C-alpha cells in the first residue's frame, strides 16, 4: 500500500542521500515530495540524472531557495507552506 512521504533535506552534506531515498521510495510506488531547505544544491551529473528520474516518476521537488527554483526547476515553497504540506504526509524523513 502506497504512502505519502515527505523527504526533508536540510543538511547540505546529505543532499544526495535524501535524493536517492526519494527515488527509492518512488520506485516502491509511494507518493514522494522532496524538500530541499535552506541551501542551494551542489549539482553534479549524477545528481541531475537522479532529479530527472524523480520528475519522470512523478515525484515533486520543492525548495525555499530561489536559486534551486530558478536554476534547477524546483517548485517554490515557504517554510510556512512546508509546515502545511507535512500535515498531508503519512511519513516524514529528515536529512
Count, helices: 4
Q: Can you say what the CATH homologous superfamily is?
A: DsrEFH-like
Secondary structure: helix percent: 40-55%
Q: Which sequence of SSEs, written as H and E, runs from N to C?
A: EHEHEHEHE
Name of the CATH class: Alpha Beta
Give a summary of the structure in a few sentences:
This protein has 95 residues and is α/β, with parallel strands linked by helices. 43% of the residues lie in helices and 23% in strands.
Written account of the structure:
The protein is of the alpha/beta class and 95 residues long. It has one domain: DsrEFH-like (Hypothetical Protein Ychn, Chain: A). Helices cover 43% and strands 23% of the residues. The protein is built from four helices and five strands, in the order βαβαβαβαβ. It has helices spanning 15-27, 45-56, 66-72, 79-87, and strands spanning 4-9, 31-36, 60-63, 75-76, 91-94. The protein has a five-stranded parallel sheet, sandwiched between helices. β2 (31-36), α2 and β3 form a beta-alpha-beta unit. The protein is globular. The termini are far apart. The mean pLDDT is 97.
Question: Can you tag this structure with a few keywords?
Answer:
single chain; alpha/beta; Hypothetical Protein Ychn, Chain: A; five-stranded parallel β-sheet; 43% helix; 23% strand
Topology (SSEs and partners):
Blueprint: E1 4-9, H1 15-27, E2 31-36, H2 45-56, E3 60-63, H3 66-72, E4 75-76, H4 79-87, E5 91-94
Helix pairs in contact: 1-2
Amino acid at each position: 500500500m502506497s504512502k505519502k512521504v515527505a523527504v526533508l533535506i536540510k543538511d547540505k552534506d546529505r543532499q544526495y542521500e535524501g535524493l536517492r531515498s526519494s527515488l527509492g521510495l518512488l520506485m516502491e510506488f509511494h507518493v514522494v515530495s522532496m524538500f530541499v531547505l535552506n541551501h542551494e544544491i551542489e549539482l553534479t551529473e549524477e545528481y541531475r540524472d537522479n532529479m530527472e528520474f524523480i520528475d519522470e516518476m512523478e515525484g515533486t521537488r520543492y525548495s525555499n531557495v530561489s536559486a534551486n527554483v530558478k536554476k534547477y526547476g524546483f517548485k517554490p515553497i515557504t517554510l510556512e507552506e512546508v509546515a502545511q504540506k507535512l500535515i498531508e504526509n503519512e511519513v516524514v524523513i529528515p536529512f
